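fold description:
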Amino acid sequence: MKKAIVLILGFVLFLPIVVMAKIGVGVGTGKIQVDQPLKAGLIYTLPPLTVINTGDEPSEYGVGIQYHENQPEMRPLKEWFSFEPLNFYLEPDQVQVVQIKLTLPVTGAKPGDYFAFLQGFPVKKIQEGSTSVGVAAAAKLYFTVTPANFFAGIYYRAASLCNMYAPWSYVVLAVVAAALLISLFRRFFSFNIGVNLKKK
């Protein structure tokens, strides 16, 4: 009888802990406003997004892009963004800093004002009855794209890639330029070098 009472008391005392356990998420940034106009074809590094586990149990987390339903600004495509890391594990009160890159396409980025939510969310969804509720926290992102033509976009993309992979990109360009110069030099100039042996 005593064992049954101890088991029931233990279950009753443990039950509120189970019920009160919650998954939570927060972000350390409320708004990211890019002040200078962005150019099609360029690759930009945005300020990082800090994701926090505000709950009291560990969980897997992810990041992504969401939109306001009736926003007046244009919606940037989700494919324009890359996150590092995209998915991660957080203990309660643990923080993850997520690096964000925005790659504007050479064509297809219409000039104008853009808006999106940079969202952090737990991968595990909270069950309420038969429905699942997705908990999320987000920072607002605002930026403007300036008009550009196709050739300007190609130039800006090449410049972005060179800067991103420097100094190796400059080494490769120097080698290619040297090879072209040698090829042109050989085409237009020829040298005949010979050795004559004198007989005694």
